[in-house]
Each structure stands twice: as C-alpha cells, then as structure tokens.
Amino acid sequence: MGLDKEVSACLNSSMKMKLLLARLGLGGKTERQSPIALERKCFEAEVKEQFQKLKDKGLSIPVFTL
C-alpha cells in the first residue's frame, strides 16, 4: 500500500465484498464455543431471567460475585 492510496484502493473486489459483509454482520466466521462454555452461558441467562422475575415481583436479592 502506497502512501498515496487509500485502503479501499488497495483491496481487490473479493476483499471489498468480505469487508462489506463483515460490516453488515453477515458472512463472518463464528467462533466455536465449547459445550461447557455454551452450557454456562445458557445457565447464566436463565438465572438472570429468574432474578428479573423476582425483581419485577418486588423481591430483591443482593448478589455478590467475586
């Protein structure tokens, strides 16, 4: 890339399309998650939902994390 060229001028058409799709949130690689990490994420979402239901009912439970 020369100093007189912009980044888009240095990319070929394939790279421009990949960049466009990435900015739109399409066509990007999804990173693989381990089953344990996926299970943990689902568990945390479920617990958060339960605490939100309790909060909506007026019950407040302080939660401390280390």
Task: Outline the structure in words.
The protein has 66 residues and is mostly helical. The chain has helices at residues 7-10, 13-24, 35-57. The protein is elongated and about 60 Å long.
Condensed summary:
With 66 residues, the chain is mainly α. It is built from 3 helices and no strands.
Which key terms come to mind for this protein?
single chain, 66 residues, 3 helices, 0% strand
Q: Radius of gyration, rounded?
A: 22 Å
Query: What's the end-to-end separation, in Å?
Result: 48 Å
Helix content: 55-70%
How many strand units? 0
Structural class: mainly alpha
Overall average pLDDT: 78
Largest sheet entry: none
Number of helices: 3
Low-confidence stretches: none
> What general outline do the C-alpha atoms trace?
elongated
What is the percentage of strand-forming residues?
under 5%
Q: What sequence of helices (H) and strands (E) makes up the elements? A: HHH
